Amino acid sequence: MNNKKVRWFLFSVTGLLFTGLGLSLAIDAGVNKFNSQPWVVQGTIALITFNSGLSIFGRAIAEFVWLKKS
User: Fold this and answer.
1) Model confidence over 15-70: pLDDT tens digits?
2) What total number of domains does the chain contain?
């Protein structure tokens, strides 16, 4: 398999996983806030994870564009 295809695949899967995990953590933090439980640390980790997933997925898009150009 082409090295560029492998990089694109790994970035895309990892980005989608981190984005989904971040959203799940954010929803859980929202439920904790609604139930008057501690939520700030979990919410912060959720935002970091979600934004990391978007950044990694953005890199996957760049890898895909470079793959199609070559």
Assistant:
1) 999 999 999 999 999 999 999 999 999 999 999 999 999 999 999 999 999 989 87
2) 1
pTM equals: 0.90
Question: What is the dihedral angle through the alpha carbons of 18, 20, 24, 27, rounded to the nearest 10 degrees?
Answer: 110
Contacts of 60-63 spanning 24+ positions with Cβ under 8 A: 60/8, 60/11, 60/12, 60/15, 63/4, 63/7, 63/8, 63/11, 63/12
Q: Are 11 and 57 in contact (CB under 8 A)?
A: yes
Q: Provide the residue range defining the domain that includes 48.
A: 3-69
